[in-house]
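Before the break, one more example. Copy the sequence into your notebook; we will annotate it together after we see the structure.
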Amino acid sequence: EKGAEQFSRDGYLVVNNLIWKEEVDIYKDVYRRMLQGEIDTTSHRHDLGNQVGRKRSNVENICQIMWPSTYVQNLDGGPIHARAKAIARLLLGEDMAFDFDMLIYKAPTTDTCTPWHQDEAYWPDMPDKRAVSCWVALDNATVDNGCMWFVPGSHQ
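Here is what the structure looks like once it is written out:
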């Protein structure tokens, strides 16, 4: 109940330990294979940092892979998707459903900022704007290394 109040007020909610260390390792391995090309994701792979020239010619500044769950069987049935959906249902109602997933990888030494944005700007014209975006860091995300930022109340 307290979390729902914070989400309503601030537009975000911090949930610590959404997945276990062993699960983090499994996701890291799957995503490593995508990033290294062992799993071909080229049709949904883009550079979010393409507003500046690449710092390393063979690596995207900020690699974005849309719908990684389409490339790995049952990835969308894994713990991140299941727990994120359960939280969304607690926050916004039992009719919430999974719609979309994405992998974002910022390679070391690319020194590229992710432009500020609001996710809703990318959504199609939908009459029901209730949504929860779940961001999960698979490594240590700190202010010094470029963690995600949210602006409290910017959803209103």
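The helical segments are 2-10, 21-35, 79-92. DSSP finds three helices and three strands in the chain. Try to locate both features in your own notes.
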